[in-house]
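Handout, section B. The chain below has 239 residues.
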Amino acid sequence: MVQDVQALVFDVFGTVVDWRQGVAREAAPFLARHGAAGANPAGFADSWRRRYSPAMEEVRSGRRPFTRLDVLHRENLEQILPGYGIDPARVPQAELDELNLAWHRLDPWPDSVAGLARLKARYIIAPLSNGNIRLMLDMAKRAGLPWDAILGAEVAQAYKPTPEAYLRTAEVLALRPGQVMLVAAHNGDLAAARRCGLRTAFIPRPTEHGPGQTTDLAPEQDWDVVARDMEDLASALGT
């Protein structure tokens, strides 16, 4: 039962923060400096993000040992640059490193901080993100995300949606899976969590992928809670 839930863990990219606009904002001056001023920065963010899951699949499949997301993001950045007419070998490494930190500087959705503060009054709140610890820490300090702990892939040494990512998070909190609720804007993430015994809450983020988004616009299962946004979730959970 939802009444048994003691901890709320959150998908972060897309659910708590707007990754697309944040990455596009930092990509725009980089592209202009390197002769690609005509490129669409949001499209650049999309291209970078499209390599996110395939890169993690190399780890999930066992073909590669666990590797922090910062490293995967950096490799993916170098892979997409030639498509924009930019030779990564001709860009100073420090400049590539700085652009890679765009993922550390993402803005929260307007309801995120206030909603999390309300939820924190009653529940343990923490990210259950594929982002690494330092990425999550930097993001939280910049955006004011009031986490009680930083959990997720690096702590679990597993990327979602593998079961270990969810089960080890509950174990770290000394809770049964049913005492933990995943909050996410992605039906697939919630389905994987439910299979592991976690409770589930869906919040739609209909512009995560831009104005033409066609996925995750509505709940696809009877999740334990469906809310309009983070503040509505707090109200639904009585905080």
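Note. The domain at 19-104 is CATH 1.10.150.240 (DNA polymerase; domain 1). Compare this with the example in section A.
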